[in-house]
Amino acid sequence: MSSGTLYDKVWNFHQVKELPGGSTQLFVGLHLIHEVTSPQAFSALNEKNLEVKFPNLTVATVDHIVPTLNQQRPFNDPLAEEMLSTLERNCKSHGIKFHGIGSNSQGVVHVMAPELGLTQPGMTVACGDSHTSTHGAFGAIAFGIGTSQVRDVLASQSLAMKKLKVRRIWIDGSLQKGVYTKDLILHIIRLLGVKGGVGFAYEFAGPAIERLSMEGRMTICNMAIEGGARCGYINPDETTFEYLKGREFSPKGQEWDKALNWWKSLVSDSEAKFDDEIQLDGSSIEPTVTWGITPGQGISIKEKIPNPEILPKNEQQIAKDACKYMNLEPDQPIEGTPIDVCFIGSCTNGRLSDLQEASKVVKGHRVATGIRAFVVPGSQKVAKEAKRKGIDKIFLTAGFEWREPGCSMCLAMNPDKLEGRQISASSSNRNFKGRQGSANGRTLLMSPAMVAAAAINGKVTDVRKLLQE
Amino acid sequence: MKKEFPKGEINVIRGRSLVIKGDDIDTDRIIPARFLKCVSFSALGEQVFADDRKELAGSHPFDLEQNKGANILVVNDNFGCGSSREHAPQALMRWGIRLIIGESFAEIFFGNCLALGIPCMTATKQEVSKLQNLVNQNPNQIWDFNLQDLSIYNQKESFKLNIEKGAYEMLYSGKWDATSQLLDAEERINNTVKNLPYLNNFT
């Protein structure tokens, strides 16, 4: 059993009591809600005649259903409008702060909360969304929950949870030019599998991790869940503190100094015990692309689509299903695969640095004929900052569309969808069958820079070739 | 006939089974995102596995006449991975599922099922495969599940099942609906708040 890790320390601070059977009642320091997984929780609360216990510890925004072309209210889609107005009503009647459209702070929940300084080291963060693991980048214990648990957190600011084991994933070296944290996490999931992390929290550590910006760290922790790990985290350090300093909800003045001391005390001890440890060399990782229907089905840009027959037996069936669904031939190179749609955005890769890196690839090029390419900033703040830096112009000049912030085609609950058998190059997090809005649409996951390269060439491309030019 | 949703102690479940084969079946497949555009779970039962069912045009296990009224679902490995949407177990429950047996389950999905009083029981790959074959050979077979015995059986066959202790106790005692239990600890919740530096100006 782990001891002395950040996970253990934060867990202990938030333990309310032991429940029968070995679960723990765990206090939730920051509860984030959005329009999709909260309405039924509020209804349940009302049915039971319960109040929200700590309304100041829940923060709301709208992201999944927002249109990215025209955000005028009421929305064109009456169902989307109903979801948003229900959230507005619930927040108002329970005294919960809501960051809505036009508030200047709305955005994908896992983008806007960190940028406001709401997410801080040592917190427990819960949200009715599996990508809540993102917030672990700050040294928080952050995890996704279902709607019944959203109800429980609203009612009691706590939930029943079993303590996870801790696996440290140590990354040596540093990422090569043209290789991003998206490639790193896709590589890790490929190695450990989509269920390799079930029952574990992942601690990402080592020189390659320490060198990453907060935005890069968020990308890694965001996709811990795609490897089965409900939470992923990174010990807070100077990069974390630098990011937090001066943000709206960050501690200020004397409090800041005291906060620093506490945050530093939470870092995993040098003699901490982990339930499992893995070590990888970050320098050897290549740009990585998924070819199949799970985020674990990734290969480097230089590899060929695997032949199911030579894969481990337990992977053969799903690999065959994947080849059939994706209509990709085994033993063919992934590079050069023609694509139809390019999507840059999402809670994984919709932050400023993601757009910046992609714009460097795009600059001076044109989107290939016949390709629909669009950029959806992760939040209103990201959009504003990108515009200030002229990044929107680079994309627009190249033939990309520049949209309003939201989750968009990551899960296609808004009008942004694939059509028919279209295949996308996408900076999002899931390549499940039908994920991007067409029941038989296809998704290739990759870094935003790789999506940009794909848009320019109209096919899967090694971004490093464009960066050399 | 409309079936009641789970309530109270979950110890015995009786009924017919159906099989969904395949590893890593994600919650987007169980309930595609477009059906999440709702403020109530009530319509989800009909939409479970919507895209897979459409593709198979009537031959999907959830559409077969022989499986109508079945309440036990037998699946494979890492069932329910992906999105945390409780809409997935809600859709299964509203279709009629009261018990799921598989090789393994994704963590959030397992917790979401538990919160609805639906046990997710595990068995070995070989046992699950054998059970799936038996179910497919004779879909009319009535199975008896007993949580306390950790087994599912009929007159001829019996399978040993597993579930983690915490979930077992919550289901067996009927305390899987956690809200009231959590609220019982009000004083201790307030104490936890007092001891959290970030809720006390870091003093």
3D structure, described in words:
The complex is a heterodimer of chains A (469) and B (203). Chain A contains 17 helices and 19 strands. By secondary structure, chain A is an alpha/beta fold. Chain B has a single domain (12-176), classed as Alpha-Beta Barrel (Aconitase, domain 4). In chain B, a hairpin with a 4-residue loop joins strand 7 and strand 8 (158-160). At the A-B interface, strand 1, helix 2, helix 3, helix 5 and strand 8 of A face helix 2, helix 3, helix 4, helix 6 and helix 7 of B.
Shape of chain B: globular
Structural class of chain A: alpha/beta
Helix proportion of residues of chain B, in percent? Answer: 25-40%
Please give the number of β-strands of chain B: 8
The biggest beta sheet of chain B, please? 4 strands, antiparallel
Q: Which CATH class of chain B is shown?
A: Alpha Beta
Low-confidence segments of chain B:
none
Shape of chain A: globular
Low-pLDDT runs of 5+ residues of chain A are none
Mean pLDDT of chain B: 96
How many DSSP H or I helices of chain A?
A: 17
The CATH topology assignment of the largest domain in chain A is Aconitase, domain 3
State mean pLDDT of chain A (0 to 100 scale): 97
Which architecture of chain B per CATH? Alpha-Beta Barrel
Sum this structure up briefly.
The complex is a heterodimer of chains A (469) and B (203). With 469 residues, chain A is an alpha/beta fold. Chain A has helices at residues 6-14, 39-47, 78-94, 109-115, 147-156, 181-192, 207-210, 214-222, 238-244, 253-265, 313-326, 346-349, 352-362, 380-388, 391-398, 448-457, 463-468; strands spanning 15-18, 24-27, 30-33, 58-61, 97-99, 124-127, 141-144, 158-161, 165-172, 200-205, 231-233, 276-281, 288-290, 298-300, 341-344, 372-375, 401-402, 423-426, 442-445.
